[in-house]
Structures are given as structure tokens and as C-alpha cells.
Amino acid sequence: MIIPPFTKTYGRRTVLRTPQLTFDPGKIYVLIGPNGSGKSTFARITAGVLDPDEKNGKHVSDGVIRYMPQKSYPFRMSVRRNIMLSGGDPERAEELIRRLNLTAIEQQKISSLSGGETARMALVRVLMKPCDLLILDEPTSAMDMESAMISEQLITEYRNLYGSAVLLVTHDLSQARRLADEVLFFQEGELYEYGPAEKLLYHPQKEITRRFLEFYGSLAK
Q1: How confident is the model at residue 57, as a pLDDT?
Q2: pLDDT band at 219 (very low <50, low <70, confident <90, very high)
């Protein structure tokens, strides 16, 4: 899927400026960078829920996009009904509900759930059907370690099952090392460095990337 170049400004402040990017099927692309670097804005514009400054026709090439925002909106109904809103195979729903330990609460109203339970429900919902590009913005940040590890397995399995490109925003550099095929490093609204995960996470080319990785403990000093 081709993402054309775009910018996003608020008032006089440019918060994001990106080049054209291509996300190939079957690869996991991980976005890293400090708070305020533009990662979530990039995810929202790519998902089509936020417009860039200029919109000339379709922003992205044809293809189905599924998107889990950083704060997923739960509808006022049971966990299971939330999951089945977009349709899909009930047997797949059962499997995902079981894998993410939601079986005991699948008939509960969403208002009774914790943040971690809501995040698990939202992840199941977005993994229900195939797509060309799956966008996940901090999908495991509210989860405990066990749920986060199961979620990572399910994300990888989804990529393998459907051949989707996956775009994952995370602050967890250990998660980036486990999942990424390619890494995009954002800083102050710019894509500073982009490349294979093994190269960028361990042998970055730019000093600003190196300092970021050293600060967060991903790179030996």
C-alpha cells in the first residue's frame, strides 16, 4: 500500500511532514520515537480518520484498512456484541476471546471492564477480519505482561494468516525488537530514519536515532 507524502499543521505549527512510503504485504512496520514526535498523527491520517493539510483525491491507494486507536471506543453493549459489530466468523471470535482470556466476561457490559480488558476486547475486534493494512496504535500499553505477549503472538499470526501489512505504534522498544521487520523513527514530526529492524535498532545511521535508543536502553552505550 502506497502512502503519499503529506503534512499536518495546527495553526502555524507543523506537527508532521512525511515522504511517500510503501507498506508491503506480510511485513510488520513499527513506529518509534519520543512523545509528540507525530507517530499517532501519522497513524490516524493513514487510517483515514484525520485529514492531512491537503487532500488531493484519495489519500492512500485502494485497499482495506483496519485501525485500533490508542484509546479505543467501546459501545454500550456486551463485550461479545462489541467484538461482533463488524461481522466476521463467530468461530474466530470464540478463538480470539479464549486466547485473550475474555471468555468469563464476554457477556458483561463494557462499562464494567478495566482498561486492560477494554484493550483486549478492542484488539479482538480489529483482528476479526482480513485487511490490506492493519494499524495498531499502542495496542498493548494498558495490558499486563501476559496479555501483551499473547497479543503480540496474535498480531504475528494475523499477519501470517492474511498476508497483511501491519503498522504498529509503540513506546516499547523490546516489543519493537520482537515484532518489527522494518522500523520508522519519528522525531519532531519528521521521519528521521527508516530501515530494517536489525539495522536501525542496533546500528542506526543517524546520531539522533542513536541517542534515542541509548536513552531508552535499546542500544548498548
Answers
A1: 46
A2: low
Check: CB of residue 201 under 8 Å from CB of residue 174. Answer: no
Q: What is the pLDDT of residues 49-105, one digit of tens each?
A: 999 997 644 555 568 999 999 988 788 889 999 999 878 899 999 999 999 999 999
Q: Domain map of the chain by residue range?
A: 2-73+130-215
Are residues 60 and 49 in contact, defined by beta-carbon separation less than 8 angstroms? no
Residue 73's pLDDT is what?
A: 79
Query: Measuring CA to CA, which residue among 121, 128, 115 is closest to residue 100?
Result: 121
Taking only the tens place, the pLDDT of each residue in 160-197 is 999 999 999 999 999 999 999 999 999 999 999 999 99
Q: Residue-wise over 77-94: b if at least 16 C-beta within 10 A, else e?
A: ebbbebbbeeebeeeebe
Contacts of 91 (CB under 8 A, 6+ apart): none
Euclidean distance between CA atoms 126 and 118, whole angstroms: 12
Amino acid in position 113: L
CATH homologous superfamily of domain 2-73+130-215? P-loop containing nucleotide triphosphate hydrolases (3.40.50.300)
List Cβ<8 Å contacts ≥24 apart for 87-93: 87/128, 87/129, 88/128, 88/129, 89/128, 92/128, 93/124, 93/128
